[in-house]
Specification:
Chain lengths: 110, 118
């Protein structure tokens, strides 16, 4: 079983739609969580950290449920520029190693 | 913001040759650098953790004699793919941890190196 699992998608949505991505992690010792965005043939870029209390950054909202080992990302009012692969990431803070999920591909169409 | 560079950005080599990839932190010191590999349509897989002045720690299944890592200074780590074969063709990405990081977001990624072995 992979340490971090995501629905690979692709999610194909119209501009303006709201889309939600889910992620689960298996290692309960994971301490920090992030969502990264990766464009084709580029390095991943940090989108946002994920906290148990939930956090929002503009159109993006992330949530962590430690009890169920579940992470989510909600994107509201999708833009064409949101088209990318979204990577769910867990980190063991003791080693700073990042464990990446396989990514969920989002396609926003006009 | 913190910048990490990689060189070369892409390389094509013949089977059996060795290729060296450099990862540099340009405006900060990095005691720890990480090397990842990403095959098409797959996610990043951590290969090894590189610590300045000491031996790298390799993940399970990664051959340390094939992927040589050297972290000779606080701003430079190199990955050498020895006797490369077509199955080593991949996107290699490094990340560097900012020495001054306080446990928050202090790991920065390089732009990656695309290796094609013919």
């Amino acid at each position: 079983r992979k340490e971090v699992e995501q629905d690979p998608g692709p999610f194909n949505v119209p501009e303006g739609a709201t889309v939600a991505f889910n992620c689960t992690y298996s290692n309960s010792a994971s301490q920090s969580f992030f969502w990264y965005r990766q464009d084709c043939r580029k390095e991943p870029k940090l989108l946002m950290s994920v906290y148990s209390s939930g956090n929002e950054d503009g159109r993006f909202t992330a949530q962590l449920n430690r009890a169920s080992q579940y992470i989510s990302l909600l994107i509201r009012d999708s833009k064409l520029s949101d088209s990318a692969t979204y990577l769910c990431v867990a980190r063991m803070d003791s080693s700073y190693k990042l464990i990446f999920g396989s990514g969920t591909r989002l396609l926003v169409r006009p | 913001g913190a910048v990490v560079s990689q060189h070369p950005s892409w390389v094509i080599c013949k089977s059996g040759t060795s290729v060296k990839i450099e990862c540099r932190s340009l405006d900060f010191q990095a005691t720890t650098m990480f090397w990842y590999r990403q095959f098409p349509k797959q996610s990043l897989m951590l290969m090894a953790t590189s610590n300045e002045g000491s031996k790298a720690t390799y993940e399970q299944g990664v051959e340390k004699d094939k992927f040589l890592i050297n972290h000779a200074s606080l701003t430079l780590s190199t990955l050498t793919v020895t006797s490369a074969h077509p199955e080593d063709s991949s996107f290699y990405i490094c990340s560097a941890r900012d020495l001054t990081g306080t446990g928050g977001i202090e790991q920065y990624f390089g732009p990656g190196t695309r290796l094609t072995v013919t």
